[in-house]
Design goal:
The chain is mainly β. The protein contains no helices and 46 strands.
Length: about 550
């Protein structure tokens, strides 16, 4: 849709008696002048036609609707036959003023109480706006009458609002990345695609969203009654919704009312990448790379805050690992952000069994696994452990801890589709624990040649392991059931050492590399190699937001 936003200008109708001059302005005799009764009189009508514009950059206090597509003015006095006045620089009484068309017409009318039916139309005769105004012509007096023209809507547009970060366009449908609330604006459109604004704009009803019970539309609570927020809850990822709205009709000069117009617009929820780095958490559209959200990892007064890790569940809830440093005191916690929000709902710390979080993982049942490194000293010392939480729980269902666990230098944690838990340990091995309360791993993967220093790790549902080696600068792939490295994967894209990586639902791998960028690799190339698809100029711990 080619939408032109227009500058708001006024129509001013000034009534003069026939004894008054026209101030040197050209009087235009209409093609079919109505009979003048009760003595000669005239109404001087001045009108300013704005130019088409692509943004509403000029704001007047009292905008009144004059479409930039106005090509003719029709005036009927006291119910008589309408007279037509052209609106162009060549029309007598019209001139260009500061790149806008200004016209002044003298309208014959009898003295006394008069009714002026005004309408503006485009070159094809489509009525763009109209109104009827009453005025009293009194000999020897000049009385200004300001007119608000009521616009005739031809359609309603539902478009991204101020500060929205959507991808796509109106014709193909807008894309909302990462479940975050987005501003939408309702706009009435005239027959020539101009946005109708200000007094005279038709009322637009409350919009309705359909296609998903997980998406709602609410008022933006601003001074603009047509500003709304499209909000999604968990489970809307990948869904397409339709937002519908209608504009009421207005009375026309023939006694009828223009037809109400109804329109709808589709919005599809597309993925985003959450990036936790330093003091901030941000989200970027996977489609365009645009930043769609940014917030502080510190919920209050913090001496030093470092976001060190991130993970998400299939509903889009985000779990961020944060380290607080104050003097010699350090704590590593897990912050929980409900899907599509920047407001933390829970911070899991030592009171919740989280004593030194360095990595988290979630299974298909939304069970949370927190890997805790050894922390503190003296009476406050906490040994390395794995705490496991049922969905929504704030205290551990059980804890894997003790000397038999083989937890030495915990780095990363993962879980497969059977509930087996995997821990990569900087001491040179990967521990695998069966589901439930365990005191020792049932299997330990050791490959001193190919995997001397396992670091960041991810595990798929089948139990295939991808782990980077901090000393080798490559990825190691361990096939399900294997006790050693099956294949090593190298790429010039991560020669600076991978910092974190995740797999998206399509099987593509996203990796933070070289402390400067995120690289996407084709899932179809793995584990044979790593085919680079794209890079994004951001870096940090990664999570997938559906």
């Amino acid at each position: 849709m080619n939408v032109h936003r227009l500058y708001p200008f006024c129509v001013a109708l000034t009534i003069l008696t026939s004894a008054c001059s026209n101030g040197g302005e050209t009087a235009v005799t209409p093609p079919a002048s109505p009979a003048i009764a009760n003595g000669g009189a005239a109404a001087k009508l001045s009108i300013l036609i704005p130019q088409k514009a692509t943004s509403s950059t000029v704001k007047q206090r009292m905008p009144q609707y004059v479409s930039p597509s106005s090509a003719q003015l029709n005036v009927a006095v006291n119910g008589g036959t309408a007279s037509t006045y052209g609106l162009s620089p060549a029309t007598p009484g019209c001139s260009t003023v500061q790149a806008q068309l200004a016209c002044v017409f003298s309208i014959p009318a009898p003295a006394g109480n008069d009714s002026f039916a005004l309408s503006l139309a485009d070159g094809a005769g489509n009525v763009l706006s109209r109104n009827v105004v009453d005025a009293t012509l009194t000999a020897g007096a000049t009385t200004p009458v300001n007119v608000t023209l009521d616009a005739v809507p031809a359609s309603v547009a539902i478009v991204p609002g101020t500060a929205a970060t959507m991808d796509g366009n109106a014709s193909t449908g807008y894309h909302i990345p990462g479940l975050f609330a987005q501003a939408v604006e309702l706009e009435a459109i005239d027959a020539d695609g101009n946005v109708i604004i200000g007094p005279g704009a038709p009322a637009i009803g409350t919009p309705v969203v359909s296609g998903s019970t997980n998406v709602s539309i609410v008022s933006a609570n601003t001074s603009d009654p047509n500003a709304y927020l499209l909000k999604a809850s968990a489970g809307a990822g990948g869904q397409t919704v339709s937002v519908s709205a209608s504009a009421q009709g207005i009375p026309l000069s023939d006694g009828t009312t223009s037809t109400p117009v109804n329109s709808s617009q589709s919005f599809t929820y597309t993925p985003a990448i959450a990036v936790a780095s330093g003091t901030t958490i941000s989200a970027y559209s996977v489609e365009s790379g645009k930043q769609v959200a940014l917030w502080n990892a510190c919920p209050g007064a913090c001496s030093l805050t470092l976001a060190t890790g991130a993970q998400s569940d299939t509903q889009g809830n985000l779990y961020v690992l944060v380290e607080y440093i104050s003097g010699i005191s350090q704590s590593r916690v897990v912050q929980v952000y409900p899907a599509g929000t920047k407001t933390m709902s829970l911070q899991m710390n030592s009171a919740n069994g989280v004593t030194g979080a360095v990595s988290v993982a979630l299974d298909s049942n939304h069970m949370l696994y927190v890997l805790n490194a050894a922390s503190g000293f003296g009476l406050s010392h906490h040994a390395a452990s794995i705490t496991e939480y049922a969905s929504g729980a704030t205290t551990p269902t059980y804890t894997i801890s003790g000397t038999l666990t083989k937890l030495s230098t915990p780095v990363s944690i993962g879980v497969d589709g059977h509930g087996n838990v995997y821990e990569s340990d900087g001491a040179g091995y990967i521990n695998i624990y069966k589901p439930g309360r365990q005191t020792a791993p049932f299997q330990q993967l050791i490959d001193a040649t190919n995997l001397p220093a396992p670091s960041y790790m991810t595990v798929n549902s089948a139990g295939a392991i991808y782990v980077d080696d901090s000393s080798k600068k490559y990825l190691a792939y361990i096939a399900p059931g294997s006790t050693s490295v099956t294949k090593t994967i190298s790429s010039s894209a991560f020669q600076g050492n991978p910092q974190d990586f995740i797999f998206d639902p399509a099987g593509n791998m996203w990796m933070s590399v070289n402390n400067s960028s995120i690289a996407e690799f084709s899932g179809s190339s793995l584990p044979t190699g790593a085919s680079l698809l794209q890079t994004m100029s951001v870096n940090g711990a990664l999570a997938w937001i559906p």
